[in-house]
Design brief:
This protein is mainly alpha-helical. α1 crosses α3.
């Protein structure tokens, strides 16, 4: 059974807190909970919505381009 929206938000915020405390990557933190794959996906989607800077697909590499002069 899928998790309610409010539970997804609670888990996501807990995962963000653990991430901020340097407890590992967000994927490993979410994976440390015994959740069904659909709930893991929903939690990660909410985490990435709330904190797009955590999403590996949104990593900004422009600072590297600036350093190399490209």
């Amino acid at each position: 059974m899928l998790m309610n929206d409010f539970k997804i938000r609670i888990f996501a915020n807990a995962c963000i807190t653990r991430y901020n405390n340097n407890e590992g990557s967000i994927e490993n933190i979410v994976g440390s909970y015994n959740l069904i794959p659909e709930d893991k996906k929903s939690i990660l989607e909410y985490v990435y919505f709330k904190r797009p800077d955590i999403n590996p697909e949104n990593q900004d590499l422009s600072h590297l381009e600036h350093q190399t002069g490209r």
